[in-house]
Amino acid sequence: MSHTRYLDPMDKVMTTNLTNLKASFSPYQPRPTLIRSDSPKLENDKRNGLDLLLPDEKLSVTVKRVQWAPMYGESYPSESTHYISPLSSKQIRFDQETPEEQRLANELRLAVHRGGGSIDPEKNFELRTRLSPLQLPYSRVQRILKECELSERNQNTYSLPMDYGRQLVAMVCKVRTDNLSDLKLRLANLLRKTKSRFFNRHLFTETGLIEATSPSKSHLNFEDFNHTLRTDALWCKATDSAITDLVKGTVLFKCRPHELREVTEKLRQCSYKINQTELGHCPNKPLVDLTGRQMSRYQEFCKNLLMDEDIVKIYDNVRVQ
Q: How much is the pLDDT for 114?
């Protein structure tokens, strides 16, 4: 017997299978469809993007023509990339057919290199000495100096302490080069022959050196001139002074390295004519006396050193005879 016979009509309704319904708080909306707009009145940013040109359509190519400024006269190649002489700080052996201007340009470049790399004649004594007898147009000289300044950008100045003849003489070589290790290799053979080496015995002190000419035309005697020189050196904050040539009135002042510019300006105020200023090296111990034979050999050694264009100046502790 079936058990549904004894159920009420309401119970029969509740036992029937009903579909599962999912509740949603947002009303149902159909999926939007994009419609291509062909209206030319709408702006580009307000369109739906379907009116863009497809890849198979041909794009319109616009050609922009540029009207150049008219050129008057004949056109010549630029000379800014052509140098008067090779950018080299070495002495060059030119042929007989080489123009004189190229020879002079190389001499000016050597003067700039040996003078510390400055193209200012007031700061470079070597350049000022070379420019005085030079017979070239001013424009050419300025162009050569600009080329020299360009070639000296990669050069650096170094101070190399040395010992000559098994510590017989102490030296400091001021060099200007772009490759210090290559310079040492070039000097290795000369140092080995003279029993010299790169060694620092700390016998020198960096000092500012000022070469000047006295304002007085005539000097009565050495004592009066030396007394005036000492007084001026004291007022200009110079640490020492000496007479190098009594007839010409040239003198040498020494000062601290950081006070070189200040002392130079005060000497100009005292009517001294400044010939050259530099940061040099002075011995801080008594000078060394050499015999005639030792002096000749040492001078030959210094001459061979100065044959290298990268060596600017040599400072030593030898007493001048």
A: 81
